[in-house]
Amino acid sequence: AGSTLRIGGDMVIGERMTGCVGCVGVSEYITPRKNVKEGDVILLTEGAGGGTIATTAIYYGMHEVVEETLNIDFLIACEEIFKAGLVKGIHSMSDVTNGGIRGDAEEIARVSGKSLVFDYERCGSVVNPKVLKMLEELEIDFMGVSIDSLMVVCPEDTAEDEKSVVRKAGIKIEEVGWVEAGEGAYVIEDGTKKPLKPRFRESAYTPIKKVVGEETPKDFEEMMRKIDEAVAKAVEKKEMVIK
Question: Is the pLDDT score of 49 beyond 60?
Fold first, then answer.
């Protein structure tokens, strides 16, 4: 199932809802993040974002950018891969959403026990040009925000087939990195390899979020302690109810 998200987020005035997406069925092939292998290459389709980018554009009065988000390229790319029978050659497929490439790279590296390396310039090349221009003007890190790209991690010898079917559907897809032995995620920028870490929060994409910031708060340890305390109380309550 997908993650539980706030529906509406910053655009909601009044009550918020939460929800998630799940599916039940039988599949011949699955492509979980933990399946990436050393030597794999990382492919990304062009992303124009969804709700996050639309919200940013509305907040800052860049309404022409909203139109760029109104597409189903992600679904079309998936469908073409399915129709071509190429899923069995893919180790991992996922969408670049909350936390952006930073968050996804860290999670994939953690669950797979491998190291992911991204090329900064190539990653930027698969962000919709109008969206990227807006993010750069507003000083929002495109690596840390939801761009709704399809991320495919597969062996190098199957990558050309994956790219070919997606491109035939008129969707841009590029090789942006690779998987190697090691731990953690990295990005190569200006010829220098450096750690690619998720920030405490997703890139601040509205004025309110910019005020709150992206850095780890000073009272983080205290916050963690309170969460642990709340968990312990919840367990205690559950056991009491069961008894």
Answer: yes
Paired tokens of 227: 């969460």
pTM (2 d.p.): 0.78
What percent of the chain is modeled with pLDDT above 90?
Answer: 57
> Is residue 41 a contact partner of residue 156, using CB atoms and an 8 Å limit?
yes
User: Which amino acid is located at 186 in the chain?
Assistant: Y
Q: In this structure, what DSSP letter does residue 127 have? A: B
Separation of alpha carbons 213 and 171, rounded Å: 34
The rounded distance, in Å, linking the Cα atoms of 130 and 81 is 27
**Six-digit token string for 232:** 């312990």
Report yes or no: 47 and 152 within 8 Å, Cβ to Cβ. Answer: no
Q: Which amino acid is at 86?
A: L
How many other β-carbons are positioned within 10 Å of the β-carbon of residue 177?
A: 26
Angle, helices 156-168 vs 73-83, to 10°: value is 120
Pairing of strands 115-119, 185-189: parallel
Residue of higher predicted confidence among 98 and 140: 140
Q: Are 76 and 45 in contact (CB under 8 A)?
A: no
Burial class (CB in 10 A: 0-12, 13-18, 19+), 179: buried
Asked if the model's pLDDT at residue 210 lies above 70, the reply is no
